[in-house]
Amino acid sequence: MEIIRRKTLKEKPAMDNSLGFGHYFTDYMFTMKYTAEKGWHDAKVEPNEPKPFDLATSIFHYAQGIFEGMKAFLQPDGSIAVFRPEENWARMNRSATRMCIPNFPEDVVEEGLETLLKLEKDWIPTAPGTALYIRPTIVATRVMLGVHASTEYLFFIILSPVGSYYAHGLEPTKLIVEDYYTRATLGGTGEAKCLGNYAASMKAGEVAEEKGFDQVLWLDANEKKYVEEVGSMNMFFVIDGEVITPALVGSILPGITRKSSIQVLRDKGYKVTERRISIDEVIEAEKNGKLNEAFGTGTAAVISPVGLIRYKNVDYTINGGKMGEITGMLYDTITGIQYGRLPDPYGWRKIIK
Ligand SMILES: *Cc1c(COP(=O)(O)O)cnc(C)c1O
Question: Is 255 in the pocket of ligand 1 (CB under 6 A)?
Answer without folding.
Answer: yes
